[in-house]
Each structure stands twice: as structure tokens, then as C-alpha cells.
């Protein structure tokens, strides 16, 4: 499969994640972020485990739970905190800093060289997201900013470590392991900090099914497949497709306005994503990380 196909397929994941805001606000009960995150992760992970029938070896459990925390549990909790305490545009702009963080983490953990073009693409993408989403009413809350930066760092760490630790299993199995671990971490937290969910309507159940089956199980399998095949910096730039999709869905589905400045911001984001794929592309002589078997890990 060509690299272009890998990029386009991987880009589907963040493009679909852009529907999360619409589904959450229009189809799910408000005030239960951790519980809904647990219900998004754990059933999807258990379903994938039942399909793949592949459990992580004991020596991989530490890594699996660490990745589940970074990619799901910690990331989703901090994301909700940022969303509650900051205007959506500010929270999304802080999240877009993930691409820059991935470049730095990949240098430290994978030895990936820092390319000037990749840094420029990441910085330009953040500017585009800011133009796309930040309005004049934007306010800065210290706790919200810390949560937004922490969420970006969590997802960045999960992306780089998912590239570094490649088990000899399919992307679907790797996704099942991480989703289940993230859900197991989220469930007791939800029981402690949030009240019980009210009776769920058919629309609520449909929203959870979308976020769990499509927005988690299917898309993260595609995402982790891309993480294994593409450079970490290139993959992280694709994450900027999410706010673009969110704005387009808000315009089409909710009748929200779309200004000229937002159009310019969306164009900048798409251009930075395209340039980021070229700037982050490794030379043909660069070999991808070798998958790690349980026996190698034990040794």
C-alpha cells in the first residue's frame, strides 16, 4: 500500500473525531464526562478483544496500561476539563500544540531528527486552528490552560510510545488492549467522582454507539495502524483535521456561521497538514522501528 493511501486512511480517524463535539452536545446527557468516556472506551475495547481473541502477554501489561492512560484515560479527562473551563477555540488550539510536542518527544524517545520544515508546519497549523476557532470572547483560565496543555502532552506521549512499542499483533488487537486498559482506568474514577447516569434514551444510546464503535474502536485501529507506518510528526499533523471537521459539521448540521477569517484558518490548517506530510517524511533509508515481541521485552 502506498504512503499516500496510508496518509489518507489515517486522516480518516481525526476527521471522524471531529464529530465528537456534535454528538456529545446533541445526543448525550450533560455533566457526565468521565462516565461517558469510560462507556466509550471499555465496551469498545472488550468488543475488539472478543473479535480478535488476543490478550496482551503479562510482560506487556505495564506498557498497555501506560498507553491506555496516555491515549485514552488521562487524555480524555484532561480534554473534558479543558472543554468545560475554556472556550472551545482556546481548548482546540492548545490541543493543536500536540504536533510540536510529538516532534520533541520523537527526538528524545525515537532519535527522530528535528526538521525545520516539520516545526514550521506544526506552528503554522496551530495558527490556522487559532484563526479557525478563537473568537473575541476567548478567556484564559489557568486550570483550563493547564488541562489543555496536559491533554496535548498526554496524546503526544501516547502517539510516540505507540510507535516505539510495536507488538507483534495486528493494529486491531493493539487498539483492543489500549481501549480496554483505558476503560478499566476510567471506570473507578467515574464511580467515585460522578453520580449515576439517568435512564438513557434511544438517541443517547445511538450517540454512545457512534462514539464507541466508530469514534473509538474503528478509528483508533486506523490511527494506530498509521502510527506504525508513518513518522510520528506526520501522524500528529493529521490530528489537525479534527477541528476542521468540527467546524464544518457545526456549519452544516447546527447552522452555525462560518466567517471569512475561519475560511482562511481552515485553508491554513489544510495547507500545513499537507506540508507537514512532506516535511516529516523520513529518507527512504530510514527503517521503521522493529516490532517488539514479548520474548524480546522479557529479555
From TrEMBL:
InterPro entries associated with the record: AA-Vitamin_Transporters, EamA_dom, EmrE-like
UniProt KW keywords: Membrane, Transmembrane, Transmembrane helix
Subcellular localization(s) per the UniProt record: Membrane
Residue ranges, annotated region (Disordered): 280-299
Annotated EamA domain residues: 7-133, 144-274
Membrane topology value: Multi-pass membrane protein
GO CC entries: membrane
Family to which this protein belongs: Belongs to the EamA transporter family.
Protein's name in the database: Putative DMT superfamily transporter inner membrane protein
Species lineage: Bacteria, Pseudomonadati, Pseudomonadota, Alphaproteobacteria, Rhodobacterales
Amino acid at each position: 500500500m502506498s504512503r499516500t493511501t496510508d496518509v489518507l486512511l489515517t486522516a480518516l480517524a481525526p476527521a471522524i473525531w471531529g464529530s465528537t463535539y456534535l454528538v456529545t452536545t446533541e445526543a448525550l446527557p450533560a455533566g457526565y464526562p468521565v462516565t461517558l468516556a469510560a462507556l466509550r472506551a471499555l465496551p469498545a475495547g472488550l468488543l475488539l478483544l472478543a473479535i480478535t481473541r488476543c490478550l496482551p502477554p503479562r510482560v506487556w501489561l505495564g506498557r498497555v496500561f501506560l498507553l491506555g492512560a496516555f491515549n485514552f484515560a488521562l487524555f480524555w479527562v484532561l480534554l473534558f476539563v479543558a472543554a468545560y473551563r475554556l472556550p472551545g477555540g482556546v481548548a482546540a488550539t492548545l490541543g493543536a500544540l500536540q504536533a510540536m510536542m510529538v516532534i520533541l518527544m520523537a527526538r528524545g524517545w525515537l532519535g527522530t531528527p528535528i526538521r525545520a520544515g516539520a516545526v514550521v508546519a506544526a506552528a503554522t497549523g496551530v495558527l490556522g486552528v487559532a484563526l479557525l476557532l478563537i473568537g473575541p470572547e476567548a478567556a484564559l483560565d489557568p486550570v483550563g490552560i493547564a488541562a489543555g496543555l496536559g491533554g496535548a502532552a498526554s496524546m503526544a506521549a501516547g502517539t510516540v510510545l505507540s510507535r516505539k512499542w510495536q507488538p507483534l499483533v495486528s493494529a486491531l488487537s493493539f487498539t483492543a488492549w489500549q481501549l480496554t486498559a483505558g476503560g478499566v482506568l476510567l471506570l473507578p474514577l467515574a464511580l467515585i467522582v460522578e453520580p449515576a447516569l439517568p435512564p438513557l434514551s434511544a438517541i443517547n444510546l445511538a450517540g454512545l454507539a457512534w462514539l464507541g464503535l466508530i469514534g473509538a474502536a474503528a478509528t483508533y485501529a486506523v490511527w494506530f495502524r498509521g502510527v506504525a507506518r508513518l513518522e510520528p510528526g506526520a501522524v500528529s499533523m493529521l490530528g489537525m483535521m479534527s477541528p476542521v471537521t468540527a467546524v464544518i459539521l457545526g456549519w452544516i448540521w447546527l447552522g452555525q456561521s462560518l466567517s471569512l477569517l475561519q475560511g482562511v484558518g481552515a485553508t491554513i490548517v489544510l495547507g500545513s497538514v499537507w506540508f507537514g506530510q512532506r516535511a516529516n517524511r523520513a529518507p527512504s533509508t530510514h527503517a521503521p522501528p522493529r516490532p517488539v515481541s514479548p520474548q524480546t521485552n522479557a529479555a
